[in-house]
Design a protein that fits this description.
This protein is an alpha+beta fold and about 575 residues long. The protein folds into 3 domains: about 1-90 and about 200-250 and about 370-385 and about 405-430, Phosphorylase Kinase, domain 1, CATH 3.30.200.20; about 95-190, no CATH class; about 260-365 and about 440-565, Aminoglycoside 3'-phosphotransferase, Chain: A, domain 2 (Alpha-Beta Complex). The protein has helices at about 1-25, 45-60, 100-115, 160-170, 180-190, 215-230, 260-275, 290-310, 315-325, 330-345, 450-460, 485-500, 510-535, 545-565, and strands at about 75-80, 85-90, 200-205, 235-240, 245, 250-255, 350, 360-365, 420, 440, 450, 465, 475. The strands form 4 sheets. A 6-stranded mixed beta sheet has the order 4-5-3-2-1-9, with helices on both faces. A hairpin with a 2-residue loop joins strand 4 and strand 5. It is globular, with a radius of gyration of 27 Å. The model is unreliable at about 120-180, about 365-415 and about 420-430 (pLDDT under 50). One of its GO terms (biological process) is phosphatidylethanolamine biosynthetic process.
């Protein structure tokens, strides 16, 4: 028993030492980005995530980001990413003051120091209503810097404010902000330069496979920067091994049901036509999709054995699903599809390759946008602040009608469950559109030159998959939501007008039928690709029903292939 306790104590000691090493990594002048992933994994603590995010932002951003304390940053986990971990990172809310407001605060501060308050407490709060800028004790005046922590009113004392107290006694009532005076320094500390972002999106890359990992990340970052310059996506603020810092867009992701709404669908068609018309300095050969699948096939067998073989013995359903997958020879299916495609005449364009609702943002107008002061209280986005706890998710089956099934899958808690989760934006997701929707396409993670039909087909398949299921496997599959013939036709017409950059372009019936035929055939390739992707990602740390998703896609593939061959 004594040896067991000693072993436990040693293990606890090693764990604490490792935590200190991890924290020191992010506090040191040089952060070890080769191991940055460990700060955001499933076992990461709140403090570790906050310090790692602060370190990354401090290294790659200017202004206030260089000096703000990690505990003052607002850090929230963004939900929705299946391949990456996303984090919303913001400077403290007190930087939202306008210059006139700051001037008034400085005047109050000066009056406080001069003793003109006559014993009354002076507390000026930030717009969020929970972060005092300074306060006066009962018998003694102290100047204090701002310490913003969600739900906290604790203040942090700083040495430079002692100098400020002496300097401000001789300062005039009307402060100037064009010098290096203490007042100017105080203003700079409260307000960042206009070119400095106040909120960013921190993207930590998820699990990748194969020797081409670094090459793929470099290519994606270059393409991301090019698209950003052409206003096809968010701005790029920084790249580091293991992730990047992006512009946080005042927008929300579309809901799956919105993809079929006429105005939104027409705007998506327009955006996709614009993307397909781009000329990007990368290989124009449609090799990307074949390279990915052939690389994954080599890992397929080992992944299946390692993840599922032991569990199949105790699960008749899983055993049956594994038997189904055993009947699929992915190498033969890939070769068959490739031979049919190469025998045809299918256009190759620059493709997004993952145009689902989570990668389509709807911007709010200035009138619609929820004030930034209320970020912490948004109804359906930021449910909690960093440090609060989240309720655990229960489990469910794949399709929506079967959610009450007793056959439930067990899942582990999400990474750092106390960290706030949210939708893909910091805005109220309840706003509706009364005018033409302002959409922006994001996440060109899978972008490459590919067959036009694949990108179109893949988008329409996404009409049937809803990733908002709060329970395992975290998606619904509703085949009845697939686009009708008329919806596809309207989409194709608008797409071709945008692609040809001619609003008066009128496609012929033959052209419309050709594009629609491409969509029907390349639906096969989309199902095969994402089924293989799902199986390979079974070991991913991201919470998602990869196995169930892969089974759903391969079943669809088999049915469509049977229909195709019968015709």
């Amino acid at each position: 028993m004594r040896q067991r306790n000693l072993g436990n104590n040693n293990a606890l000691k090693r764990h604490r030492q490792q935590q200190q090493i991890d924290r020191n990594c992010c506090l040191s002048k040089r952060c070890n980005y080769d191991s940055i992933w460990q700060h955001f994994n499933r076992n990461a603590t709140l403090e570790e995530i906050r310090y790692a995010a602060a370190r990354i932002c401090r290294d790659h951003l200017n202004g206030r980001w260089k000096t703000v304390a990690p505990e003052d940053l607002i850090v929230k986990r963004v939900s929705g990413g299946l391949s990456n971990f996303l984090y919303y990172v913001s400077l403290p809310a007190f930087i939202e003051y306008e210059e006139e407001e700051v001037e008034q605060l400085l005047l109050q501060k000066q009056q406080q120091i001069e003793g003109s308050v006559n014993g009354k407490d002076v507390i000026s709060t930030s717009e969020s209503g929970n972060s005092p800028v300074y306060a006066r004790d009962d018998d003694e005046v102290e100047t204090k810097s701002v310490g913003v922590m969600a739900g906290s009113t604790k203040l942090a004392h700083t040495d430079d404010d002692d100098d400020a107290a002496t300097s401000d006694k001789q300062a005039p009532k009307r402060q100037r902000f064009d010098s290096d005076s203490v007042a100017s320094t105080y203003l700079k500390r409260m307000q960042p330069p206009k070119q400095e972002p106040r909120e960013v999106l921190l993207r930590i890359y998820g699990q990748t496979h194969g020797d081409q990992m670094m090459e793929n990340m470099i290519t994606e970052s270059v393409v991301f920067a090019l698209l950003s310059e052409r206003n096809f996506g968010p701005k790029l603020y920084g790249i580091f091994p293991g992730g990047r810092i992006e512009q946080f867009l005042p927008a929300r992701s579309l809901a799956t049901a919105e993809l079929g709404e006429q105005r939104i669908s027409m705007k998506v068609a327009e955006k996709l036509g614009d993307i397909h018309s781009l000329s990007i300095p990368m290989s124009k050969e449609p090799d990307w999709i074949w390279t990915c699948m052939n690389r994954w096939v080599t890992s397929f067998e080992s992944t299946m054995k390692g993840k599922c073989l032991s569990k199949a013995k105790n699960s008749p359903v899983l055993k049956k699903q594994m038997e189904l997958l055993r009947t699929i020879n992915y190498e033969e299916e890939i070769a068959w599809l490739k031979s049919v495609i190469e025998a045809g005449d299918y256009p190759v364009v620059f493709c997004h390759n993952d145009l689902q609702e989570g990668n389509i943002l709807m911007r709010q107008t200035q009138q619609e946008r929820t004030p930034r002061v209320s970020i912490s209280s948004l109804r359906s986005n930021f449910d909690e602040t960093l440090g609060d706890s989240l309720d655990g998710n229960s489990n469910s089956n794949i399709s929506e009608p079967e959610r009450n099934s007793s056959k439930l899958h067990s899942v582990s808690s999400p990474p750092c469950p106390e960290l706030d989760t949210t939708d893909d934006s910091a805005l109220d997701s309840s706003f509706t559109i009364d005018t033409e929707p302002d959409l922006i396409i994001i996440d060109f993670e899978y972008c490459a030159y590919n067959y036009r039909g694949y990108d179109l087909a893949n988008h329409f398949i996404e009409w049937t998959f809803d990733y908002t299921n709060p329970q395992y496997p975290y998606f619904y599959h509703n085949k009845s939501n697939y686009a009708t013939g008329q919806q596809r036709r309207d989409f194709i017409v608008q797409y071709l007008k945008s692609y040809h950059d001619d609003e008066n372009y009128s496609p012929t019936v033959k052209e419309l039928e050709k594009v629609d035929e491409e969509i029907r055939f390349f639906t096969l390739l989309s199902h095969l690709y994402w089924s293989l992707w799902s199986i390979i990602n079974l070991t991913s740390a991201i919470e998602f029903g990869y196995w169930e998703y892969g089974i759903a896609r391969i079943v669809e593939y088999q049915q469509l292939k049977s229909d195709y061959l019968s015709k």
